[in-house]
Write a structure and sequence with these properties.
Blueprint lengths: L20 H4 L3 H22 L1 H9 L20 H10 L16 E5 L7 E5 L1 H18 L6 E4 L11 H8 L2 E4 L5 H9 L5 E4 L1 H12 L20 E4 L8 H11 L2 E8 L3 E7 L6 E3 L5 E6 L6 E2 L6 E8 L10 E11 L10 E7 L4 E3 L2 E3 L1 H8 L6 E9 L10 E7 L7 H15 L3 E7 H4 L9 E3 L1
Parallel strand pairs: 3-4, 3-5, 5-6, 6-7, 17-20, 18-19
Antiparallel strand pairs: 1-2, 7-8, 8-9, 9-14, 10-11, 10-12, 12-13, 13-14, 15-16, 17-18
Bound molecules: zinc ion (ZN).
Length: 457
């Protein structure tokens, strides 16, 4: 049977592989028109109902005349800190609430700026638009109605729990497991309860390492009843990693699966980017609901979204009712991988290089820890694939040698040759000296959820 573009290799179903073909294959002009119309309504809503934006725009000297989508760069950015201040000045929903409180039907406590949670209020319409974007996102990865999906994202309090509404909309079989509950994940996969796993890249990597070391017996496939296909697809999210070749290839090889990745932004939408089975970066899946700009990470000047461009993404919610956000600095630095795809989707594709907060500077050059992960991963099976950069204090500039901790299996805890080999590889590929310290798995910290890529010590 001929393989369809945009479909997983073992998926022979008859359904379209694009959820909302009309929107997802629309021309650039059509997407601009769709976004522009939504933005006009949103702008009016903000002018009338948001004391927060009324003041912000007044202070920025933006007059009362309409600012179109093409001139969005004339409006000021919004930071996470400002959103928190808006909440504090008029609790519990803040001075940016644009609906009456009785229209708020769901409230998430998102991660705040300084430890204390922030509040995100949604109307029924807001939840519906999240589900729309999320459904395009997960459907794009190859998850279809016939999939059985084991999720480890939890149901709350974090926004990733919204994925459960999305899977219901697609019509998959859902097998929810609490984040970090490795035993239930392993049991579920061995019992043949699921052919698809949703997890962080760290967790998928941890699972692959355990399988490789034989502490978890193979096979995952061919056991149990029903279709008996076993695990064929892993969708990673919550952190970069699923897109780093050294990490992806390892998970694919050991588990015998296809890895695709998804990404969301807590304050904007829990699922906004999804990678199709062509595995060439994550498609933007928010057309009509979210507007994305690319800016220079250093000067914050607008950049063209074109293949090869590297910049920071800025998000504007076009249809959000309760708490609209304009030009949100999400802190994600990405590389644009393309603006078309064999799957037929016309939205741009991107890969995350890292968080702005994780970026550091060595002799004037920006470096993201994902670049180090990509190198370290080549030293399997001596290393596990996890690594982090150690920073002294707040400074973003690091004087070489750059301190790097690399997680290793217990046998390689004091492998001096390995230290030298990794340091040499970093030097030849990233052009700076590093000081590698090997840390055994028992000391590196939990692998169940996200891995911090830089730590201050
Ligand atoms: Zn595609």
């Amino acid at each position: 049977m001929a393989m369809s573009p945009g479909r997983l290799s073992d998926d022979h179903c008859e359904k379209d592989w694009i959820w909302e073909r009309e929107v997802e294959t629309a021309s650039v002009d059509e997407v601009q028109r769709l976004g522009g119309a939504a933005w006009e309504r949103q702008y009016r809503r903000l002018r009338e109902a948001s004391p927060f934006y009324a003041r912000k725009w007044r202070e920025a000297g933006v007059g009362g005349t309409f600012v179109g989508l093409k001139d969005l760069a004339n409006l000021p950015f919004t930071t996470k800190q400002e959103l928190k201040q808006a909440l504090d000045e008029d609790p519990p929903f803040g001075s940016n609430l644009c609906v009456s409180p009785d229209q708020v039907k769901r409230v998430y406590q998102t991660s705040g700026t300084s430890g204390s949670p922030s509040v995100l209020a949604l109307t029924r319409g807001d939840m519906e638009s999240w589900t729309t974007m999320g459904t395009r996102t997960y459907y794009a990865t190859g998850i279809h109605e016939h999939s059985s999906v084991l999720t480890t994202f939890g149901a709350g309090p974090f926004v990733a729990g919204h994925t459960h509404f999305v899977l219901l909309r697609i019509g998959t079989r859902s097998v929810p497991v609490a984040p970090g509950d490795t035993e239930r994940v392993v049991f579920g996969l061995r019992a043949g309860l699921a052919d698809t796993l949703l997890s962080t890249a760290s967790f998928a990597q941890y699972l692959a390492n355990r399988v490789e070391k034989d502490t978890v017996p193979l096979p995952f496939r061919g056991e149990g009843q029903g279709e008996g296909r076993g695990l064929t697809h892993v969708v990673t999210g919550g952190e970069p990693g699923g897109g780093i070749p050294a990490i992806r290839d390892h998970i694919q090889r050991v588990l015998g699966v296809t890895v695709t990745e998804v990404m969301g932004i807590g304050d904007i939408a829990p699922s906004l980017f999804g990678e199709c089975p062509h595995q060439q970066g994550m498609h933007f899946c928010g057309a009509g609901h979210v507007w994305v700009e690319l800016i220079d990470p250093d000067t914050r000047a607008p950049m063209q979204i074109e293949t090869g461009a590297v910049g920071e993404m800025v998000y504007t919610t076009l249809t959000r009712e309760a708490m609209p956000i304009v030009r949100f600095l999400g802190g994600d630095i990405v590389r644009i991988e393309g603006t078309s795809c064999e799957c037929g989707r016309t939205s741009f594709r991107q890969r995350v290089l890292g968080r702005r907060d994780d970026m550091f500077i060595v002799r004037g050059v920006n470096v993201y820890p994902t670049a180090i992960l990509a190198i370290v991963g080549d030293f399997r099976p001596r290393v596990t694939g996890r690594a982090r950069v150690i920073r002294k204090g707040e400074a973003t500039s690091i004087e070489p040698p750059v301190p790097v901790e690399v997680e290793v299996t217990e046998r390689h805890e004091s492998d001096a040759a390995l230290v030298t080999a990794i340091e040499n590889a970093i030097h030849s590929r990233l052009m700076f000296r590093s000081k590698v310290e090997l840390v055994p798995e028992s000391d590196f910290g939990g692998a169940g959820y996200k891995t911090k890529l830089t730590v201050q010590k």
